[in-house]
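Hi U.,

Before I forget, here's the chain from the pilot set. I'm dumping it here mostly so it's searchable later in email.
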Amino acid sequence: MSPRIVVDKPKRRCHTAFILFLLSQALWAQSPPSIVGTWRVVAFETHNTDGTVIKEFGDNPLGYFIYDGTGHLAIQVMENPAKKDPPVSFAYFGTYRVDAAKGIVVHHVEGAVEGDGSAGPKVRQYIGKDELRPFRFEGDHLIIEIRRTNNAGLTLPEGVEYKVREMVRVR
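Structure:
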């Protein structure tokens, strides 16, 4: 007869907790990426049909897109390097919802401001409206790209081929 191994309750709980942890990690690794988090802006550009690219906030824009787990968002972007004081900038906040099947995040804008004399987007017109933004993930990057073919009802100005906003997840 072989000896019986007895595992006391604290060790059994520890083993159970470890197994649950491993299972949760496996499930998390299989889940699709989430927009929830803080995203640092790395590009904010308009690509025109004539091939020119306009970098509304300079070569190294400063800013964040923040999507929290309760459905709230805050977005702030400013020009870098600043060419004047105050710099070109905008900010808005509100709530959001994601339509993953369509690849669209809807920003419901509650409040918005532009920098004094800002040449950036006129975001005050967004207050009280739903702004649809087609998005995708590329690794740790969140890409919001508005094209005539995926504009989700948005109208691009004449001569604009597409607009791209690229962010990297802050860790």
